Amino acid sequence: MAASSPVSNEREADRAAQLRRAIRLKKAAAARRAGARRDAAAGTDDSARTGGSGSLPPAPRDAPRRLGELQRAVWLAHQLAPGDPAYNLVSAWRVRGTLDVATLERAFQRVVARHRILRSTYHGDGGEVSQRIAPPSSAAELRLERLVVAAGVSAEQAAVGAAQQPFDLGRGPLVRCVLIEPAAGAPVAMLVLHHLLADERSLEILWAEIAELYADGAEDAHPRAGNAGAPRLQYDDWTHWSRSRLEGAGADADAVAARREAERSLRSRLDPPPPAAGLPYVATPSPAAGSRAAAPGARPGRLISHRVDAGVAAAVRELARRCACTPYAVYTFAFRLLLDRTLPDDGPGDGPAADQDVADAAHAAADARAEHVFGTPVSLRSHPATRDMVGYFLAPAVLTAGVDSTRGTEEGLGAWNASLRRALADAEAPLDRVLEDLPAALRSGQPLLQLFFVHQQLPAARGLGDATLEPLLLDLGSAKFDLTLFVGERAPGAASAEPGGEPALELALEYRSDRFDAAGLERLLNHYRTVLERLPHHRGRLGELSMLGDDEAAALDLWQRGAELDAGSQPLLPQRIDAALADAAEREAVVGAGERWSATRLRQEASRVAAALR
Q: Is 276:450 a contact under the CB 8 Å cutoff?
C-alpha cells in the first residue's frame, strides 16, 4: 500500500482460512473414500499411501531457498519500477511522551536478528529468484535512522520523504527503523519494509516484539538473551513446506487435488475475459498531476480519506447479523453496487425486470458474472504455525459475481455472500499461472485487476515504555492499482487514539492521479459512503437504492425542473411574448408554404408541439 497501513482484519482472514481448510478437508475426505474403494477393488493396502499430516517441519538447512509463490507478483512489480514506493510497506506512529532512542535501536536490532526474512536479500538468476540470508550478527550493524527536521517542515512531510526511499532487493537491508524529530511538535517513529518481506499482520507482530524488547532493554542495559530467541519456524520454512506439498515425489495428493480444483474454478470464472474497467473520472494530463514518485515506470497516486460515524458501522454489523454473513461481505457488496452504478454495464440484471422470466434470467446471469471484476487481498495464514509468523501471506481473490438489481437488500446480500465465499476459496490458485491458460486477449492491454477492495482493522494506540504511539496515515504519492478502496474498521469497544474519540469507520481511496480526476474520485468516495449509510435500511429493490447524497439529489432535481426565476414586478420574456400575441390574436403572424397563420393559430401549434415533446 502507498500509505501507512492499518493491520489487516485478522478475524476475516481467520474465517477465510477456516473456509478454505473446511473445503480442502471435505475434498480430501471424498478423495480418501474414493481411494479406499479403488484400493479395496484392487486389493492394495491403504497404509502404504502417503499424504500430508498437516505438520509444518523446519526446512532442511541445505534446501535451496527460493522466492515464495506469493512473493512472485511483488518481485515482478519491483522489477518494472525499482524506485516506485508503491511497494514500500510503512507503519508510522506519532510519539507522545519520552522515548529512549538507544533502547529503541537495540530492540529493532534484536527483532531483525530474530527473523531471517528481515535479513534477506533476493537475487534473480536465469528465471529463478533465490533468497540469501545474512547471519544474525549482521543485525548489530543496523542503525535507527534519526532525521532532525528543520523549522517549517512538518514531521509528516519528512516522514513521507523517508518512507519513499527505494530498496535494492539485491543489496539490502530491506527494513528500516526511522525516527523523525521535528523542530516543533511530536516525533514520528516508523518501520519501513519492502512488501516482499511482510504483510500488514507482520507489522503488528513486529511492533509487539519491539515493545516487549524495549521494555526489557529499558530495565536492564544487557537484556536477557532468552527474550531475543528466534522462532523455531519461520517464513522460509513455510514456503519450502508449501512447495513440497505440491511438487516432487513427496507431494500431498489431497493438496494437489485441492489446488487443481481452485485453479479450475478460478479459470472458469475468468473465461471469457472481463472488459477493462472504465471509470468516468478521467484526469487531464499534466506534469504536476502526479505525485512525488518519479521513478521510471512508477504509478503516481494520491490518497483521500473520509471518516464515517460509528452508527454506520453498527448498522452494517446488524445487517450482517440478519443475513448470517460478516461486515466484510457487506462492505464488498456495497462496493459492487457502487461499481455497477459507476462503470458502464451492458449485462443482464441491470434494471427492473419486465416479467418473472426476465427476472429469473437476470438472477442467474448477475450471480454468475459481473461485467467488471475487482480484487481483494486474502491472508493465507491457514496453518496454525503461521499466525504469528513474519512474512508475506497475501493472495488476491478475484470477485466476479454480479448483483441482480431486482432483488431486495437481504436476498441480494445473501447471494453475494455465497459467491464471495467461493471466490475466497479460490484464492490459493496462483493468478498468474491461471492467466497463462486463458486467451491471449486477457494477457494483453489492460491488467486483469485494476480495481481493489481492502478491509482492515484500524490500529489502536500502543505503548512503548513511557511513550504512547498514535497511528499516523501517510500518503506516499503512489498507487499499486488504478483504484483501491480501503475500509478501516475499529473493533467495537476499542480504545480511541484521540481525546475526542475516533470514528468506527475510516474510508480511504488510493488512485492513479495521472488517470483520474481528484474531484471525481472525491464524489466516488462520497457515493460509497452514501451507499453504506442507506443499504442497511433499504427495503426496496437494490436498483432503487440511490448513491446520491441529499445535496446532489437536490441539485439534480433543480436541473431537471429548471430554475425558478423571480423578476419582481417586471414580466419575464415568455410572459411578454404571450401578452403581445394576445393583443394581436387574429393578426397575421406567419406566412409560408402557401399558408397564413394568425397569432392564435401559431400559439396552438406551438402548444401541440410542446405537448408532444413532453
A: yes
